[in-house]
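Risk mitigation, structural track. In case the binding assays with NAP fail to produce interpretable data, a predicted complex structure has been prepared as a fallback.
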Amino acid sequence: MKINRFGDTELQVSELGFGCGAVGGLMVLADHKEMMNAVEYAIDSGINYFDTARMYGDGLSEIHTGAILRELDRTDLLIGTKVRIAGDEFGNIAKTISDQIENSLQRLGIDTVDIVYTHNTIGSERNVSSGTLSVDDLDSIVEVFEKAAASGKLRYWGFNGLGETDSIKEALVQYSPSGIHTCYNMLNPTSGYQLTKTFPYQNYEELMKVASGAGIGTVGIRILAGGALSGSLERHPIAQQNVAPIATSATFQEDVSRTSAFEFLHKEGFVDNLVEASVRFAISNDSLDTALIGLSNFDQLQQAVDYANKGALPQEALDNIRGIWAVSQLHE
Ligand SMILES: NC(=O)c1ccc[n+]([C@@H]2O[C@H](COP(=O)([O-])OP(=O)(O)OC[C@H]3O[C@@H](n4cnc5c(N)ncnc54)[C@H](OP(=O)(O)O)[C@@H]3O)[C@@H](O)[C@H]2O)c1
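Fallback model:
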């Protein structure tokens, strides 16, 4: 598995990262043996980054991820987690973040976490009901992050690159985080590609490219559009059954129907299926340091590793994918 330097940090991350989120549910709801097998297989395959958050299974993902890595006695692997302000907590952001870092360390069972991200969206103005932090709100959070770094509780900190594109970019310039999460897939590639204003979904205006150019590490999320890029409406029994799309169509169902635009990749022999196309599409972009895969079971992990090991998509396939966005076939 290819290893990339994570922005300007000292972290070296595998091009595929292990998504411990609730959409797939493996690290939240699977039985211990399946989690253990998957994590062991991931490590043996060269995956070294595990992405969790307090929100995933209300702490369960952190507890399971920490416990399994301890059981395997692997302290050399990288863990990222996230903090999130909600409701009344907007009244005391600094204390909430500080407490959440402590609680995450406890659940993970470690003294230092490699990277902590904000999980909230970022906007031009604070919006408590949607959980959006203003760029200025990040001030007090960064202060807490810096203190936590100085006292050895975390090594690096970063932001969630979701919300309003201009505000996210402003936050990157103002605070220079070590890393960002960014939504990137064949349905919405705008974090990595410059597309016209008529593109049907939110335009991230090359956020990933801009961040990478500024020495900020990049973590790709929603590489499979929450599962829609499998081309199937069916959800795994332990997966989140209702997935809210991020920066694509209004509904998961609509996202699934949009994936037909990419079926030519399979028909023309570039790939065996859309999941392979999506994984290889993500790792084809040099601005992306690690592409997270959300997982429901061991087989999905094994497939993702096999696909990543096939390498980047051929340029002809990438050019043809670009053609789909150019003619906005996603609309049809
Ligand atoms: N920063 C943020 O706000 C944020 C937001 C979202 C995600 N994330 C991170 O990114 C990670 C991944 O994102 P995600 O889980 O939202 O979405 P994702 O990786 O785009 O999609 C995950 C889903 O894809 C399907 N899938 C995976 N492998 C497959 C295969 N081989 N064949 C068929 N289907 C397959 C599964 O659906 P089924 O379960 O139905 O089989 C799985 O639940 C998360 O775990 C989390 O760590 C961060």
